[in-house]
Amino acid sequence: MLSEFMPTLIISELLAAYRSRRITPDEFFQRLLKRIDDAPDHHIWISRLSDEQVMSHVNLLKDRSPDDLPLFGVPFVIKDNIDLVGVPTSAACPDFAYTPASSAFVVQRLIDAGAIPLGKTNMDQFATGLVGTRSPYGAGQNSFNRDYISGGSSSGSALAVALGLASFALGTDTAGSGRIPAAFNNLIGLKPSCGRLSNSGVVPACRTLDCISVFALTASDAGAVLQVVQQFDESAPWSRTVSTSLRSGAMQAAQFRVGIPMKSQLEFYGDAQYARLFELACRNIESLGGRLVELDFTPLLETAKLLYEGPWVAERYAAIESFIEAKPESLHPVTREITQQARGRSAIDTFKAQYRLQELKRIAVKLMQQAEVFMTPTAPTIYTIEEAAADPIRLNSNLGYYTNFMNLLDLAAIAVPGGFRRDGLPFGVTLFAERDTDESLLRMADRLHRAGVNRLGNQSWGLPVSTWPNVLPGFQCIGVCGAHMQGLPLNHQLTARGGYFVSRARTTAAYRLFELPGGPPHRPGLLHAEREGRQIDLEVWAMPQSEWGSFIAGIPAPLCLGQIHLEGGGSVIGFLCERHATATARDISCFGGWRTYLANAQ
User: Fold this and answer.
1) Which residues are catalytic?
2) Most buried residue among 115, 213, 283, 437 by CB atoms closer than 10 A?
3) What is the model's pTM?
4) Domain 11-314+355-452 falls in which CATH fold?
5) How far apart are CA 259 and CA 267, in angstroms?
6) Could you read off the pLDDT of 370-384 as tens digits, one per residue?
């Protein structure tokens, strides 16, 4: 009989479940495969591995453990332009399909690390599109509302993670295909620096620009995958050794500059809610220590136009030249129309565009020196599947407004969840910086994710306690549950001392919350409960140790500092209340947190 326990698909929590033997890989995958069978059809798959094929991979783990393999028993899916041995690669074009004799370099690295492949996922044909609808296997349907696009070209990969069918997924990203679907499905979307991941075993779109990308529930999970796959591959012409940018350290400072477009350059195509959510993301990154700097993004936006309006479309033609010449009717009509535009391009056009790109790169270098990190919306808006079908090229082009310049300028980028429209559809932002800032971007993305959203994909799972080394040397963490939280009356006591937000958190179910008399400002008291405890919402902040003494001196009785135990393990020093003060105080534990209580009181 199968265990009733089913962990989340967050990598750290799944590995913890294996280590504690609450579930075995056999049990987990039997339950997961049933979940996949029962899942609604969002047009995720091109080819699934059979249950027997999946379990054959699981059986290879019988003599290994999570201590041996970093991705032991972690399920993942693969965009169908990336090879998996013995499984057809079609790039969403059935007549193009071939069966590879070996897996792509990155896929093999993952399998060797203990990850379990589940199948190949749907995509815009030949990775030409940001909508996720240009496929004979069906238009990808958004994980939150099936009338809306999933984003592409890595549509199925994002959907599988958002819908709780895989812990992570491989996509590819040339113009935004690893970021747009992440934004539309409330995911992390990592587009590594060009060449950091080998493209060996990948059907090219633009060979000089293509990157394998990673979709994950958390930045920590994306980082765990990156650590496994970022290895030099001598057989791949564009592969290079991993290095670290000198600017990575500056991104981890308590105060840092965040470059954003000038207001006149922000484009939302009339989507007022996306505009509002970007303003909220700006406030959130300010709470982490970011100082917003409005910059002229003209060189970036002009570079973006080169990708499809310049000769780089000829690279797409070169990638499939023999096939498109022999079987043009096999291509999706929109894919064929875009790709065949290359026939009108000359070598002269190509050299002129290369010259202009080099000029723009020189200008962009100066721009990149004006901030440690840059932030834009990931996409300016989102469209229904019906809208995308009615105007496929123009609306697809709109989606690339903030993404098309990244690989031409050799930047690292990560899409981060940033909130939800009133209709429930997700919004996301992209953090980017110069090449080889990948790990620093992931750490910042983790903090920004926690500041804005506490939901993973389209699941009810909340963010786990941060495992990133976000706390800077010389800083001390503190857990706050009341007036010191973001936007509340005493938060300035933290920020004025150089404190910055680390993460949201919840206590274990061993506490009670009380409204204490007095004020303003009104304060709650958190009490460790010997019985009938509840989980209470917290915020974790980091403050310079040099400011710790003056901060503690201002704490009034009956509040005191003590160890607070957190959901998922671990603890933090934070505000507790002396028991005698709760005798006549109002018990507000049922609200689960001070913010929720205030909202209901109003």
Assistant:
1) 79, 153, 177
2) 213
3) 0.82
4) Amidase signature (AS) enzymes (3.90.1300)
5) 16
6) 999 999 999 999 999
